[in-house]
Specification:
The complex is a heterodimer. By secondary structure, chain A is mainly α. Chain A has helices at about 5-10, 40-75, 80-95, 95-105, 110-125, 125-140, 140-150, 155-190, 200-210, 220-245, 245-250. Chain B is about 30% helix and about 20% strand. The model of chain B is unreliable at about 1-30 (pLDDT under 50). Classes of the chains: A mainly alpha, B alpha+beta. The interface between A and B is large, with 40 and 40 residues.
């Protein structure tokens, strides 16, 4: 629905209509209208695009960065591993929400890429640890030794042999990260530092709705519901993928 | 990602917090008391605070020399009378110097029982004037005072203020301050190290001289005051005032509707919230007080496009301010055409007005050399797409609505507006005072009938690194006639001549549009109907508790 928003949304995005503010959900506006007379259903659809883009791009970013760092760290070991893992430890030990708030305050603009950048800067550490652990286990196994004996380069060893075998847990982690990023964006938007208006995201719609919770509760209910359902779906998907991809669970 | 989940759980908890807060607030425990909700908590009290909310608390804690009442008239409180030229206690000397003699009322005491005398005034003046004292917010007026004398040591209730230049309000504010500080408590620390006096513990728990005495400050929660029974104008009838800091205005609204706070000030409420309170709790009176709060867009005149007056005028024509005030404020807050509101004696109703006229805007933009591009957005002579940024404090719902309406309306005339809001500490702390907004910034300013706003209009008041970011001429407006008017008006003692000068200045402001006036905000406050004699003034620095000692609570 979000992907098709430009074609199926009932009204143009961001169309302000000051004469039809606060319309309760009805046939004309299924989800009602907001404080500027904009159709809430339309905004929910467009907001879904933003929230999902943040989720997916964040998941891809942290997977790529996490895999590179994790693989290098696990494969080379020694000082490289020490330095990279201490960096991971430091980033993991800092509470992220206050950091997001500071970064959001310092980095100009209120766009999607800013939010993704902020989340990515601290989000890749989990995947890096995961991949490092996998690589440490895999690199001593016979098929890797065999490849090495056949003269495979280090890059080839990492890319062809180690990473593909470490991919399953990364996919699971990335799926769960999608939901996390959507929630993270909601939290930042809720605090007024997320996606800048008028671009809608589910988070900033929810944030603005709190002002009107007394007389226009539908403004909070719909974005809240979509955040809830989407995050829950991705968490179920992640759990499902883990069950499907983890060979140990099949035993 | 678990942190994200935790964060969002926190957000959900925040929403539900409104309910427990409502449930746990304490009921009155005997004796007449009033609880006032504030949506900000001060950093400290007294001279060195940087927060507007502190002045609400000052109104209850300190005695004012001559506060403005709700009729916007100065009423002598701690002085026998306001000096006048006619009576001879305000003398204008040759070479434009002045001598103002003040007679202080006897009977006022500090909350430790010591009398308030002219020596306290002289001490406060000396501290404020001393350049070694740090973080003094505004020395504009105090610099005009050369000295404060107490001519007769046996009469510490008479003081003479020596002015080194003319200043029209030398008879209402002894040296630019309405409140003073106790010499007997602060002087030794001040003499020891003036540079550290702003760090003195006094500013967290002041011994003051007003109708209420400081009892406690629980950070993040509340501040409690008790009636000072020796308050010279008469012991306050309400025996206890509690200020509760409820930083989220939605939670404050919930508390007001539930009746857990009796009133509110600096509440971030809009008209919608006020209507909600009226509807849901008829025991609460809502005050819509006419004020001198000017909400406008400061335009950065150093920008290559915006330095052209026609572009600024075009924007004024392109924004439908009438519709904005009608829909967002149900018409309760009037459109502003200049910086002074109708109730100000220097209000000029005949300035140039820019009623909504997009066609006119397009013509002006075409004259200024802009041509429409294929996407409907204008291009300047070098082919650059006309994208502009508007900034303000993040999370201000009303300003964000105004921005979004503007974005749509400016798009109609070919300007692509980007909204870039920042947290208030960043926006008010650096971006606005250091002119770091590339094109436009929405800002509000509070004035009193005595505001001449020299620091906003004179070209020497453009903040820059060279002048240590002093001054508030944030648009960077340079107009020789305005400079002349401002130089003249700050020394003009004749009110009629001053008003005439200010009227002309407003015409120039409306013509040049260095700031695009939006509307005049009302001062929105609330108070339980059973608290009588509440008289909001709507003026900067004079908040609901300005006459708290006269309040009577009829239901306790």
């Amino acid at each position: 629905m979000a992907v098709l928003a430009p074609w199926i949304a009932p009204y143009p995005s961001d169309r302000i209509s000051l004469d039809s503010r606060w319309k309760v959900p009805s046939g004309g506006h299924l989800f009602g209208t907001d404080e500027l007379g904009r159709d809430v259903l339309t905004r929910i659809m467009y907001a879904g695009r933003i929230s999902l883009v943040i989720g997916f791009v964040f998941a891809i970013n942290i997977s790529v960065i996490g895999m590179i760092v994790g693989a290098v760290s696990g494969f080379y070991g020694g000082k490289v591993d020490g330095v990279l893992m201490r960096l991971v430890d430091i980033l993991l030990s800092v509470p992220t929400l206050p950091l997001y708030l500071i970064m959001a305050a310092l980095i100009p603009g209120g766009g999607v890429s800013r939010i993704i950048l902020i989340f990515t800067a601290f989000g890749w550490t989990g995947v890096a640890r995961l991949v490092r652990g996998q690589v440490l286990t895999l690199k001593t196994q016979d098929f890797v030794e065999a490849a090495r004996a056949m003269g495979a380069s280090e890059t080839r060893l990492i890319l062809r042999h180690l990473l593909p075998n470490a991919l399953a847990p990364v996919i699971v982690a990335a799926t769960l990260a999608v939901g996390g990023a959507i929630l993270g964006e909601s939290a930042l938007s809720y605090l007024g530092l997320g996606i800048a208006p008028p671009t809608p995201s589910w988070g900033n719609m929810l944030q603005r709705a709190q002002e009107y919770i007394w007389n226009a509760s539908w403004l909070a209910i719909f974005p809240g519901f979509f955040i809830f359902v989407t995050v829950l779906s991705f968490n179920f998907l992640g759990d499902g993928l883990r069950d499907a991809l983890d060979p140990r669970l099949k035993v | 990602m678990r942190t994200h989940i935790r964060a969002s759980v926190m957000v959900l908890c925040l929403v539900s917090l409104a309910v427990p807060v409502v449930a746990t607030a304490g009921a009155p425990a005997g004796g007449s008391q009033v609880t006032i909700g504030l949506a900000q908590e001060p950093d400290q009290l007294g001279e060195f605070t940087i927060m507007a909310v502190a002045s609400v608390i000052h109104n209850a804690l300190w005695g004012f020399v001559a506060p403005f009442n709700d009729k916007w008239v100065r009423t002598p409180l701690m002085v026998e009378k306001l000096p006048t030229i006619k009576d001879g206690d305000w003398q204008v000397l040759p070479n434009k110097k002045m001598r103002v003699t003040w007679k202080l009322k006897r009977g006022f005491t500090w909350h430790d029982g010591k009398p308030v005398t002219a020596l306290d005034y002289r001490f406060t003046y000396a501290m404020k004037r001393n350049p070694r004292v740090q973080e003094i917010q505004d020395r504009f007026i105090v610099r005009k005072v050369d000295n404060i004398l107490v001519p007769n040591p046996s009469d510490p209730y008479t003081m003479v203020v020596q002015w080194n230049e003319q200043w029209p309000f030398a008879n209402t504010d002894p040296f630019g301050n309405q409140i003073i500080y106790p010499r007997h408590i602060l002087e030794s620390a001040y003499l020891k190290d003036p540079a550290r006096i702003n760090r003195h513990p006094y500013w967290r728990a002041p011994v003051a001289n007003g109708p209420y005495r400081f009892v406690e400050w629980v950070g993040g929660s509340h501040m409690t005051f008790e009636a000072y029974e020796k308050w010279a104008p008469g012991a306050p009838k309400v025996k206890r005032i509690t200020f509760r800091f409820i930083l989220d205005s939605t939670v404050l609204l919930a508390n007001q509707i539930a009746g857990n706070v009796d009133g509110s000030e600096i509440n971030n409420f809009g008209i919608t919230e006020m209507v909600e309170i009226e509807r849901r709790n008829p025991a609460i009176a809502t005050h819509y007080t006419e004020a001198l709060i000017w909400e406008r867009i400061d335009i950065n005149l150093d920008n290559e496009w915006l330095k052209d007056k026609r572009v600024r005028q075009a924007m004024a024509y392109a924004v439908d301010r009438e519709t904005i005030v009608r829909t967002l404020f149900q018409g309760k807050q009037p459109v502003a055409h200049s910086w002074l509101a109708p109730r100000h004696p220097a209000y000029n109703p005949n300035v140039k007005k820019y009623s909504y006229d997009p066609a006119r805007a397009k013509t002006l933009l075409a004259e200024a050399g802009f041509t429409p591009g294929a996407d409907g957005i204008l291009r300047d002579s070098s082919g650059k797409r006309v994208e502009m940024t508007i900034m303000t404090t993040a999370g201000n719902a009303v300003r964000e609505q105004v921005q979004q309406i503007m974005k749509e309306q400016l798009k109609e005339v070919g300007i692509d507006l980007r909204i870039d809001n920042r947290p208030s500490s960043v926006f008010l702390g650096t971006i606005a005072p250091r002119r770091q907004f590339p094109h436009m910034a929405i800002i509000g300013s509070l004035f009193t009938p005595e505001s001449l706003a020299y620091e906003r209009w004179h070209s020497t008041q453009i903040p820059s690194a060279a002048n240590n970011w002093e001054g508030q001429n944030r648009p960077g407006w340079r107009n020789a006639e305005v400079d002349r008017i401002m130089d003249q008006v700050i020394g003009e003692l004749d009110a009629d001549k001053r008003n005439a000068l200010l009227k002309r200045q407003q015409e120039l402001l409306a013509e040049d549009v260095p700031s695009l006036s939006l509307y005049f905000r009302l001062n929105l406050t609330t108070m339980r109907k059973t608290v009588r004699n509440v008289k909001p003034t709507g003026l900067g620095g004079y908040h609901i508790p300005w006459n708290a000692w006269e309040w009577v609570r009829t239901d306790q």
